[in-house]
DNA sequence: CCAAAAGTGTTCTGACTACACCCATGA
DNA sequence: TCATGGGTGTAGTCAGAACACTTTTGG
């Protein structure tokens, strides 16, 4: 066999961000290993598959959502990105899921590097129950501020993903799965404050959002709170 | 042999931009093929090599410059990024340069996709004579506005590289090899006008550049032209 | 009427634009 | 002294930030 069903030394890992009520989380798998260690959802890429389609496939496997907004944020290819310890831990189980892929060990029993492409996506974590796959002991949402011990350079990938998410969040809002159908300006503000981890003054924030021309104002929302009822908004249908 | 000396289905291609006197060029190889077709300088990645080091190695091979500023700008992995025609053209010669890498054909004689990582770099093209390698009939600078027929999706890669170069050119200037040791403000302005392919008003441009606090004003330059002598500048030593 | 939260208006600043103007230089 | 190109100054516009203020709501 010259070529396996999957590309041998290239994987794809996804930083799936979930937002809800001032919390920013991401999906991690707890791996079925002796040591407690976590990984970004990822996998190998099929030979006939566009890389972006592979990312969509992995995202669908884990979230059940078909058409998610996603973006590539970088390639991770340091020669030593897989430590010896992680390699030994992981190589035992990877073959179960990808029997076609040769374990990354050369004829001298040295580990070989696997390059990973990073993608991120955005969802509302109240709407998505992370699905585990065979390699996972469990799969769940973890707060970005309290990330557990992660395998390979996955922690670095998660941070790079967040950094790219923060660039032009305005444009990304257009596609999102982060907010419900209708929402208040406060909801949007909390989303921004959570992603950027800093406060935004409400009046300036509102002006800026409205100036973007992407929100449509609807009726007011009467919650029964003893305060003024906020307007509801929805994303303008894209032209 | 389970693994070759190079990673099998992953390559790296470099968009090496060269600037001089209102011209923006990039290095292309004319391949030793029946058809006249050009390629970005690129190559496979060694198993033990950081990807960024592989990019530096390729850049050094082609330009003779060791420590070039470079940046990754994306991954190119469409399943059909290599057309049947390009595949047939190229597969004949690739084996000469990389005898260790299996030709990307599966057992059913179907071509397999190779994923490529894009890097770009910046130089002054008057200072660099592009070096050809075995696969090349020639290797030279080509104007970005008059790109010849390019193999695979290399044209798309070149344009994406330019797009990323345009983002934050200010910061990239700090590292560059684009300008001589000392230069006039007009030189810098022409660089910007060439990269962005649009004019900048001279007075506002000067103010903006000086506000960046990265230029140090030196003595005037007396060229013998019958006009006021411009100041010379140099990049402030980085702290 | 009051507290709480929503929403608006006004001013200030700093970046960028456009326009007009002055200065040095060699012919 | 004049044309040429280098360099500076000022006013207008626009997005953000900071501040104070008014409005709506249910108790």
UniProtKB/TrEMBL annotation, chains A, B:
Domain NrtR DNA-binding winged helix positions: 177-235
Gene3D superfamilies: Nucleoside Triphosphate Pyrophosphohydrolase, Winged helix-like DNA-binding domain superfamily/Winged helix DNA-binding domain
InterPro entries for this protein: NUDIX_hydrolase-like_dom_sf, NUDIX_hydrolase_dom, WH-like_DNA-bd_sf, WH_DNA-bd_sf, WHD_NrtR
Pfam families, per database record: NUDIX, WHD_NrtR
Domain called Nudix hydrolase: residue spans: 14-75
CDD domains in the cross-refs: NUDIX_NadM_like
Name of the protein described by the UniProt record: NUDIX domain-containing protein
